[in-house]
Prior knowledge:
Blueprint lengths: L1 H11 L2 H54 L8 H13 L2 E7 L4 E4 L12 H8 L4 E6 L2 E8 L9 E8 L1 H51 L13 H51 L5 H30 L9 E5 H17 L4 E6 L4 E5 H17 L6 E8 L3 E8 L21 H7 L5 H11 L3 E7 L3 E9 L5
Parallel strand pairs: 7-9
Antiparallel strand pairs: 1-2, 1-5, 3-4, 4-5, 6-8, 9-10, 10-12, 11-12
Helix pairs in contact: 2-3, 2-5, 6-7, 8-9, 9-11
Amino acid sequence: MKHIIHxxxxxxxxxxxxxxxxxxxxxxxxLFLLFYIMTDTYENRLISQKIDExxxxxxxxxxxxxxxxxxxxxxxxxxxxxAEQVAEVYQGRILLVDQDLKVLKDTYGLEDGKxxxxxxxxxxxxxxxxxxxxxxxxxxxITLSIRETMAFQSAGVxxxxxxxxxxxxxxxxVRQRVFVMMVVITMTILLISVLYAQFLTRPLKTVTDSIxxxxxxxxxxxxxxxxxxxIRSISDxxxxxxxxxxxxxxxxxxxxSNVSHExxxxxxxIKVLSDSLLxxxxxxxxxxxxxxxxxxxxxxxxxxxxxxxLSMVKMDRNTAIMNVENVSINxxxxxxxxxxxPIAASxxxxxxxxxxxxxxxxxxxxxxxxxxNNLVENAIKYNYDEGWVRITLNADHKxxxxxxxxxxxxxxxxxxxxxxxxxxRVDKARSRDTGGTGLGxxxxxxxxxxxxGSIKLHSKEKEGTTFTVRIxxxxxx
Length: 477
C-alpha cells in the first residue's frame, strides 16, 4: 500500500504531469466559464429583448385604450384587434382590467367579465408600481399600469403573458452547438497540452539518460539540445561538466601513472642492489656498506615521494581543512629561513630576507610554511653555487606579498605554464640528482589557492626565477 501511495505521489510530482495540469487548467477552466456565461447571457438577453418588445406593444395598447375611452365604452374594435394581434404574434395572452378590477378583454376569452384580484394588479392600480414582471415557469407575465401622464391613479391594468419555451429552445440549440464546439476545442487543447508537456520534458529525459550513461562509465557523452535559451544553457553546462570530469579523470589516470613511475624507479634500484648483494658471496665489507647506503638513499627518496603525495592529498581544495589563526608572517619567514640557511650555506648561497613592515594575517601556518618552504628550497636547489636567494615581505591594506627571487638556472618560457603540474620537471635528470619529486610547486600552488591567494611566476633561462605570492590579510572561507 505504501509503495502504491509513493508511486502516486511520485507521479503527481512529475514535471510533465504538473505542466500538463497547469496548461489544462489555464486553457479549459476559462473556456468553460466563458461557455457558461455566454449561453446563460444569451438566453437572458433573448428573454429581456422579448420583454422590452412586449412592453412597447403594451404601451401602444395602453395609449389606444386611453385615447379611445375603452374603459367607458368597451365597443372599440381597434383596441381588441390590436390586443389580439399582439397576443397571436407573441403566442401569448393579453387581459385588459378596468378600475374596478373587472376583466374587459381576454384574448383567450376565458376571463371576460370576471374580477381579477392579484398583488401585481393591485400594486399597479394603486400606483405603487407602474410595472410588474414575473416569471411563471415557462411563461413571463407583464403587468402594466394604464394611466394618463399627469394622473395619480390608474385607469386600468394590462396583463400580458407569453411563453418562453421557444426562446429557451433557441438558447438550448445555441448551447448545444457551442458545447460541440467546446468539446472540439477541449480535445485540441488537451492534445496540444500533452504534446507541449512532452516537448518541455524531453530535454530533461535526454539529460537523465546521459547521466545514466555516465554512471555506467561512458564518458563520451555530449548534449546538443536546441530550443529555449534555458535548455541551451543546461546543455552547455552539462557539456562543460563532462569536460571537467574527463579532465579530472585524465588527471587522475596521469597522477596514478606518475606515482607508479616515481615509485617504480627507486623500487627497481633497491631490487637491483638487493639482488647484487644476494648473488655475490664473500663481498668486501666496504662494497656491502656502499650498496646499503644506496639502498637507504632510494628508501629516503621513496619516503619523500610518499610524504609529498600525502601533502598533496591534504592540500586538495575539496577535502582540505584550514586551521586559520592570526599569525605574524615576519616570524613565520624568519623561522623558515633559519632552518634552510644550513642547506644554502653548504653551497655558499646567500639567503637575503627583506621585510618592509610588520604583517599580521589570518593563515594556516602549516600549509603556508609548506608552500614558502618549497619555493625557497627550489630556489636553493636550482641555483648556481655562490648564488643568492632574496625573500621579501610587503603588504597593503588588503593583501600581503611574499617574493622569492633567485639567481639560478631559470625556467624556459615555453614550459612555464606547466611547472605547477604534479610530477612535472623542467629537467628530469637534474631533478632526480637534486632529489626533487616534481610535487613541490604543485603543493605550493594548492596551499596558496586554499588561502584564496594567487601565485605568479617570472623567469628567464640562466637569469633566475621570481615567484610572487599574494594572500589576503583576512581569510575568507
